[in-house]
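Intended use. Records like the one below are meant for learning the mapping from a protein sequence to its folded structure. Do not use them to infer anything beyond what is encoded.
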Amino acid sequence: MVTPALAETTTTIVIGSGFSGLAVAAELNRQGIDAIVVDSFRPSGPGSPAPNTGGISLDALSERTNILRLLEHYALRHELDIRPGTSPLQLNRLGTDAPTEHQWTVLTADGTLSAHSVVFTRGALNQLRRVLHSVGLSTSHELASVMHSLGLYLVGVGDLVVPTTHEILHQAKRAGASISARMAARNSIAVLIPA
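Structure written out for the chain above:
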């Protein structure tokens, strides 16, 4: 007998369970937004490239390590839904623009997750490029605003270098505030639309 794949819904899916992903999860929790954090799209197994520190100084790495420990403690204490062993296999945009419907699905080996918003961290950039291409978007100076209108966010991503710890925390705070405002607007529209 085949067990059907688990289907779950949440407000936000965070792709990347490292420093940036935990920073976003903590900020979303602080904003009262439900989220599921999964691992990044990346190769695994022998011959996989080692993580690149991006030239971060030892002092900055030490600061980041200390903040990472605090974020991990926060995640445990607040029982955040962090799934580092769950890797996304495919991301799809649903064909709905209805303000109260989930717009995105993430297929994993354990099932399907659906959400209103998706946050990409550094490890998910190649997948993000494929998704943007599949919905007809190309890189432009207004890419961030277009992405936000689709419920897509970037955290832990710099132009050419790995952002500083402070920049990542600032990006997480901005994404959390934007997702919170987006959900408040959706909830207002849901109240106005009769069931």
